[in-house]
From TrEMBL:
The keyword Amino-acid biosynthesis applies. It comes from the Bacteria. Keywords: Amino-acid biosynthesis, Aromatic amino acid biosynthesis, Lyase, Phenylalanine biosynthesis. InterPro entries: ACT-like_dom_sf, ACT_dom, Chor_mutase/pphenate_deHydtase, Preph_deHydtase, Preph_deHydtase_CS. Residues 198-273 form the ACT domain. The keyword Membrane does not apply. Residues 2-183 form the Prephenate dehydratase domain. It comes from Arthrobacter ginkgonis. This is Prephenate dehydratase. It is an enzyme of class 4 (lyase). It catalyses: prephenate + H(+) = 3-phenylpyruvate + CO2 + H2O.
Protein backbone atom coordinates (compact mmCIF):
# COMPACT_ATOMS: atom_id res chain seq x y z
CA UNK A 1 0.00 0.00 0.00
CA UNK A 2 1.25 3.50 -0.84
CA UNK A 3 0.18 6.44 1.34
CA UNK A 4 0.73 10.02 0.29
CA UNK A 5 0.26 13.14 2.44
CA UNK A 6 0.81 16.87 2.46
CA UNK A 7 4.56 16.93 3.08
CA UNK A 8 7.46 17.18 3.47
CA UNK A 9 8.14 14.97 6.51
CA UNK A 10 7.27 16.78 9.74
CA UNK A 11 3.91 18.30 8.75
CA UNK A 12 0.88 17.96 10.98
CA UNK A 13 -0.55 15.90 8.11
CA UNK A 14 2.26 13.38 8.49
CA UNK A 15 1.49 13.23 12.24
CA UNK A 16 -2.14 12.46 11.29
CA UNK A 17 -1.04 9.75 8.85
CA UNK A 18 1.12 8.08 11.52
CA UNK A 19 -2.04 7.50 13.57
CA UNK A 20 -3.34 5.07 10.90
CA UNK A 21 -2.74 1.47 12.02
CA UNK A 22 -0.08 -0.30 9.94
CA UNK A 23 1.11 2.83 8.17
CA UNK A 24 4.60 2.78 9.72
CA UNK A 25 5.34 -0.39 7.74
CA UNK A 26 3.87 0.98 4.48
CA UNK A 27 5.40 3.20 1.78
CA UNK A 28 4.87 6.90 2.58
CA UNK A 29 5.26 9.48 -0.19
CA UNK A 30 5.12 13.23 0.59
CA UNK A 31 3.21 15.53 -1.81
CA UNK A 32 3.78 19.26 -2.16
CA UNK A 33 0.09 20.18 -2.09
CA UNK A 34 -3.32 18.78 -1.22
CA UNK A 35 -4.19 18.76 -4.93
CA UNK A 36 -1.09 16.75 -5.85
CA UNK A 37 -1.79 14.24 -3.08
CA UNK A 38 -5.37 13.71 -4.30
CA UNK A 39 -4.25 13.47 -7.93
CA UNK A 40 -1.84 10.68 -6.95
CA UNK A 41 -4.83 8.70 -5.65
CA UNK A 42 -6.90 9.44 -8.76
CA UNK A 43 -4.07 8.33 -11.07
CA UNK A 44 -3.33 5.20 -9.03
CA UNK A 45 0.18 6.41 -8.04
CA UNK A 46 -0.96 6.14 -4.40
CA UNK A 47 -3.69 4.08 -2.70
CA UNK A 48 -4.50 6.63 0.00
CA UNK A 49 -3.96 10.34 0.67
CA UNK A 50 -4.07 12.02 4.09
CA UNK A 51 -5.20 15.66 3.82
CA UNK A 52 -6.33 18.35 6.31
CA UNK A 53 -10.04 19.20 6.08
CA UNK A 54 -11.01 21.31 9.10
CA UNK A 55 -9.42 23.21 11.98
CA UNK A 56 -11.26 24.01 15.21
CA UNK A 57 -10.15 27.69 15.03
CA UNK A 58 -9.71 28.46 11.33
CA UNK A 59 -12.54 26.33 9.93
CA UNK A 60 -12.56 24.41 6.66
CA UNK A 61 -9.44 23.86 4.54
CA UNK A 62 -10.67 25.24 1.22
CA UNK A 63 -7.98 23.47 -0.85
CA UNK A 64 -9.30 20.10 0.35
CA UNK A 65 -13.01 20.95 0.31
CA UNK A 66 -12.75 22.13 -3.29
CA UNK A 67 -10.47 19.35 -4.55
CA UNK A 68 -12.70 16.53 -3.25
CA UNK A 69 -15.90 18.23 -4.40
CA UNK A 70 -14.95 18.20 -8.08
CA UNK A 71 -13.05 16.00 -10.53
CA UNK A 72 -13.00 12.22 -10.47
CA UNK A 73 -14.83 10.90 -7.39
CA UNK A 74 -12.92 10.07 -4.23
CA UNK A 75 -14.01 8.49 -0.96
CA UNK A 76 -13.21 9.34 2.67
CA UNK A 77 -12.47 6.15 4.62
CA UNK A 78 -11.21 7.49 7.95
CA UNK A 79 -10.84 10.68 9.98
CA UNK A 80 -8.02 11.58 12.37
CA UNK A 81 -7.71 14.44 14.89
CA UNK A 82 -4.37 16.08 15.72
CA UNK A 83 -3.89 18.62 18.57
CA UNK A 84 -2.14 21.71 17.21
CA UNK A 85 0.61 23.72 18.88
CA UNK A 86 3.21 25.89 17.12
CA UNK A 87 6.81 26.96 17.68
CA UNK A 88 8.69 29.89 16.14
CA UNK A 89 12.02 28.75 14.67
CA UNK A 90 14.67 31.10 13.31
CA UNK A 91 17.61 31.05 10.97
CA UNK A 92 20.96 30.38 12.70
CA UNK A 93 22.42 33.60 14.09
CA UNK A 94 19.01 35.01 15.04
CA UNK A 95 18.43 34.77 18.76
CA UNK A 96 15.86 37.44 19.60
CA UNK A 97 12.40 38.36 18.36
CA UNK A 98 13.65 41.88 17.44
CA UNK A 99 15.78 40.31 14.69
CA UNK A 100 12.78 38.63 13.01
CA UNK A 101 11.36 40.67 10.12
CA UNK A 102 10.06 37.95 7.76
CA UNK A 103 8.13 34.82 8.76
CA UNK A 104 7.16 31.88 6.58
CA UNK A 105 4.53 29.21 7.23
CA UNK A 106 1.37 27.58 5.85
CA UNK A 107 -1.55 30.02 5.56
CA UNK A 108 -3.62 28.01 8.03
CA UNK A 109 -0.82 28.05 10.60
CA UNK A 110 -0.35 31.80 10.16
CA UNK A 111 -4.08 32.34 10.67
CA UNK A 112 -3.81 30.48 13.99
CA UNK A 113 -0.84 32.55 15.24
CA UNK A 114 -1.60 35.94 13.65
CA UNK A 115 -2.34 37.77 16.93
CA UNK A 116 0.83 36.47 18.57
CA UNK A 117 2.85 37.55 15.51
CA UNK A 118 1.27 41.00 15.44
CA UNK A 119 1.98 41.50 19.15
CA UNK A 120 5.50 40.06 19.18
CA UNK A 121 6.88 40.72 15.70
CA UNK A 122 5.61 44.23 14.91
CA UNK A 123 5.82 45.14 11.22
CA UNK A 124 6.86 41.63 10.11
CA UNK A 125 6.18 40.30 6.59
CA UNK A 126 4.50 36.94 6.03
CA UNK A 127 5.68 34.58 3.28
CA UNK A 128 3.24 31.72 2.55
CA UNK A 129 4.74 28.22 2.44
CA UNK A 130 3.20 25.02 1.03
CA UNK A 131 3.23 23.53 4.57
CA UNK A 132 4.58 24.32 8.04
CA UNK A 133 7.43 21.81 7.54
CA UNK A 134 8.33 23.27 4.13
CA UNK A 135 8.55 26.73 5.72
CA UNK A 136 10.71 25.45 8.57
CA UNK A 137 13.08 23.38 6.41
CA UNK A 138 13.42 26.34 4.04
CA UNK A 139 15.42 28.06 6.80
CA UNK A 140 18.21 25.54 6.14
CA UNK A 141 18.41 26.59 2.47
CA UNK A 142 20.79 29.56 1.94
CA UNK A 143 18.76 30.50 -1.19
CA UNK A 144 15.85 31.55 1.07
CA UNK A 145 16.10 34.87 2.81
CA UNK A 146 13.37 34.84 5.45
CA UNK A 147 14.25 35.02 9.14
CA UNK A 148 11.84 32.62 10.83
CA UNK A 149 9.13 30.01 10.37
CA UNK A 150 6.14 28.70 12.31
CA UNK A 151 5.90 24.91 12.55
CA UNK A 152 5.19 21.85 14.68
CA UNK A 153 7.58 21.25 17.61
CA UNK A 154 8.46 17.83 16.13
CA UNK A 155 9.94 19.09 12.84
CA UNK A 156 11.92 21.72 14.76
CA UNK A 157 13.35 19.13 17.14
CA UNK A 158 14.04 16.48 14.48
CA UNK A 159 16.05 18.99 12.44
CA UNK A 160 17.70 20.73 15.42
CA UNK A 161 16.20 24.05 14.36
CA UNK A 162 16.74 27.13 16.47
CA UNK A 163 13.50 27.41 18.54
CA UNK A 164 12.84 31.01 19.65
CA UNK A 165 9.39 30.55 21.23
CA UNK A 166 7.03 27.64 21.98
CA UNK A 167 3.25 27.59 22.25
CA UNK A 168 2.66 30.66 20.05
CA UNK A 169 -0.86 29.63 18.97
CA UNK A 170 -3.56 32.25 19.63
CA UNK A 171 -6.03 29.63 20.86
CA UNK A 172 -4.86 26.88 23.17
CA UNK A 173 -6.35 23.43 22.58
CA UNK A 174 -6.86 23.80 18.80
CA UNK A 175 -7.39 20.61 16.82
CA UNK A 176 -7.11 19.89 13.09
CA UNK A 177 -9.19 17.17 11.50
CA UNK A 178 -7.66 15.16 8.66
CA UNK A 179 -9.26 12.65 6.31
CA UNK A 180 -7.81 9.58 4.64
CA UNK A 181 -9.02 9.45 1.05
CA UNK A 182 -9.06 6.58 -1.46
CA UNK A 183 -10.70 5.84 -4.81
CA UNK A 184 -14.39 4.92 -4.36
CA UNK A 185 -14.62 1.34 -3.11
CA UNK A 186 -15.81 -0.56 -0.07
CA UNK A 187 -17.50 1.62 2.52
CA UNK A 188 -16.17 1.09 6.09
CA UNK A 189 -18.67 -0.94 8.15
CA UNK A 190 -20.88 1.01 10.59
CA UNK A 191 -19.61 1.31 14.18
CA UNK A 192 -22.62 3.07 15.75
CA UNK A 193 -20.63 6.34 15.85
CA UNK A 194 -20.09 7.30 12.21
CA UNK A 195 -20.03 10.32 9.96
CA UNK A 196 -21.22 10.75 6.39
CA UNK A 197 -19.82 13.46 4.12
CA UNK A 198 -21.64 14.80 1.07
CA UNK A 199 -21.23 17.67 -1.36
CA UNK A 200 -24.49 19.22 -2.51
CA UNK A 201 -24.81 21.80 -5.27
CA UNK A 202 -27.80 24.10 -4.83
CA UNK A 203 -29.75 23.21 -7.99
CA UNK A 204 -31.84 26.32 -8.44
CA UNK A 205 -31.72 29.56 -6.58
CA UNK A 206 -35.05 30.19 -4.88
CA UNK A 207 -36.16 31.35 -1.44
CA UNK A 208 -35.76 28.44 0.97
CA UNK A 209 -33.46 26.36 -1.29
CA UNK A 210 -30.99 25.81 1.55
CA UNK A 211 -33.86 25.14 3.94
CA UNK A 212 -35.16 22.41 1.59
CA UNK A 213 -31.74 20.81 1.64
CA UNK A 214 -31.35 21.00 5.43
CA UNK A 215 -34.88 19.72 5.90
CA UNK A 216 -33.85 16.38 4.38
CA UNK A 217 -31.61 15.83 7.41
CA UNK A 218 -33.81 17.51 10.03
CA UNK A 219 -36.96 15.59 9.08
CA UNK A 220 -35.13 12.27 9.60
CA UNK A 221 -33.43 13.30 12.87
CA UNK A 222 -29.94 13.39 11.31
CA UNK A 223 -27.61 15.80 13.13
CA UNK A 224 -25.03 17.81 11.13
CA UNK A 225 -21.52 18.35 12.52
CA UNK A 226 -20.24 20.67 9.77
CA UNK A 227 -21.75 22.63 6.88
CA UNK A 228 -19.84 24.98 4.67
CA UNK A 229 -20.63 26.82 1.49
CA UNK A 230 -17.97 27.04 -1.20
CA UNK A 231 -18.23 28.88 -4.51
CA UNK A 232 -18.53 26.56 -7.52
CA UNK A 233 -16.31 28.97 -9.46
CA UNK A 234 -18.90 29.18 -12.26
CA UNK A 235 -20.47 32.54 -11.41
CA UNK A 236 -20.99 34.91 -8.53
CA UNK A 237 -23.64 33.49 -6.21
CA UNK A 238 -23.18 29.88 -7.39
CA UNK A 239 -22.37 27.68 -4.37
CA UNK A 240 -22.14 24.09 -3.24
CA UNK A 241 -22.46 22.90 0.33
CA UNK A 242 -20.01 20.54 1.99
CA UNK A 243 -21.79 18.68 4.78
CA UNK A 244 -20.79 16.22 7.52
CA UNK A 245 -23.76 14.39 9.01
CA UNK A 246 -23.78 12.06 12.02
CA UNK A 247 -24.67 8.51 10.99
CA UNK A 248 -23.87 5.87 8.38
CA UNK A 249 -25.40 5.27 4.95
CA UNK A 250 -26.49 1.80 6.13
CA UNK A 251 -28.82 3.49 8.66
CA UNK A 252 -32.29 3.98 7.23
CA UNK A 253 -32.66 7.61 8.29
CA UNK A 254 -29.35 8.55 6.65
CA UNK A 255 -30.11 6.59 3.47
CA UNK A 256 -33.53 8.25 3.31
CA UNK A 257 -32.01 11.72 3.85
CA UNK A 258 -29.48 11.07 1.05
CA UNK A 259 -32.28 9.90 -1.26
CA UNK A 260 -34.19 13.10 -0.43
CA UNK A 261 -31.09 15.18 -1.21
CA UNK A 262 -30.72 13.38 -4.52
CA UNK A 263 -34.32 14.20 -5.48
CA UNK A 264 -33.69 17.88 -4.74
CA UNK A 265 -30.15 18.02 -6.10
CA UNK A 266 -29.27 15.12 -8.46
CA UNK A 267 -25.67 16.36 -8.57
CA UNK A 268 -25.15 15.42 -4.90
CA UNK A 269 -21.82 13.65 -4.35
CA UNK A 270 -21.44 10.97 -1.65
CA UNK A 271 -17.93 11.22 -0.17
CA UNK A 272 -18.22 8.35 2.28
CA UNK A 273 -19.44 7.01 5.62
CA UNK A 274 -16.63 6.32 8.10
CA UNK A 275 -16.01 6.00 11.85
CA UNK A 276 -16.28 9.27 13.76
CA UNK A 277 -13.50 10.12 16.25
CA UNK A 278 -13.42 12.65 19.05
CA UNK A 279 -16.75 14.02 20.19
CA UNK A 280 -19.10 11.09 20.46
CA UNK A 281 -22.52 12.13 19.29
CA UNK A 282 -23.83 8.86 20.74
CA UNK A 283 -25.75 8.79 17.48
CA UNK A 284 -27.62 5.55 17.93
CA UNK A 285 -28.76 6.25 21.49
CA UNK A 286 -30.12 9.71 20.62
CA UNK A 287 -32.23 8.58 17.66
CA UNK A 288 -35.94 9.11 18.23
CA UNK A 289 -38.08 5.96 17.88
CA UNK A 290 -39.69 7.16 14.66
CA UNK A 291 -36.24 7.56 13.02
CA UNK A 292 -34.87 4.11 13.86
CA UNK A 293 -34.21 1.43 11.22
CA UNK A 294 -37.13 -0.58 12.69
CA UNK A 295 -39.57 2.34 12.31
CA UNK A 296 -38.49 2.86 8.68
CA UNK A 297 -38.89 -0.89 7.96
CA UNK A 298 -42.33 -1.05 9.61
CA UNK A 299 -43.49 2.02 7.69
CA UNK A 300 -42.24 0.64 4.35
CA UNK A 301 -43.97 -2.69 5.06
CA UNK A 302 -47.22 -0.85 5.88
CA UNK A 303 -47.13 1.06 2.57
CA UNK A 304 -46.33 -2.18 0.71
CA UNK A 305 -49.38 -3.86 2.31
CA UNK A 306 -51.61 -0.96 1.26
CA UNK A 307 -50.29 -1.07 -2.31
CA UNK A 308 -50.92 -4.84 -2.50
CA UNK A 309 -54.65 -4.03 -2.76
CA UNK A 310 -54.19 -1.98 -5.94
CA UNK A 311 -56.60 -2.62 -8.85
O1 LIG B 1 1.40 22.54 7.13
C1 LIG B 1 1.14 21.51 7.79
O2 LIG B 1 1.90 21.04 8.64
C2 LIG B 1 -0.14 20.85 7.56
O3 LIG B 1 -0.26 19.67 7.82
C3 LIG B 1 -1.30 21.68 7.04
C4 LIG B 1 -2.14 22.32 8.13
C5 LIG B 1 -3.53 22.81 7.54
O4 LIG B 1 -3.75 22.80 6.35
O5 LIG B 1 -4.38 23.22 8.36
C6 LIG B 1 -2.46 21.34 9.17
C7 LIG B 1 -2.58 21.64 10.47
C8 LIG B 1 -2.41 23.02 10.98
O6 LIG B 1 -3.72 23.51 11.22
C9 LIG B 1 -1.72 23.90 10.00
C10 LIG B 1 -1.49 23.52 8.70
Amino acid sequence: MIYTYLGPAGTFTEAALMQVPGVDAAERVPSTSVNTALEKVRSGAADFAMVPIENSVEGGVSATLDAIATGESLQIVREVLVPITFVLVARDGIDSLEQVHTVSTHGHAYAQTRHWCEANLPGHDFLPASSTAAGALGLLDPENHYDAAICAPLVAEQNSLNILRRGIEDTAGAVTRFVLVSKPGRIPVPTGNDKTTVVVPLPDDHPGALMDLLDQFAARGVNLSRIESRPTGEALGSYFFSVDAEGHITEARMADALAGLHRISPGVRFLGSYPSVGRSPNATASVARHNTDEAFAEAAAWVARLKAHLG
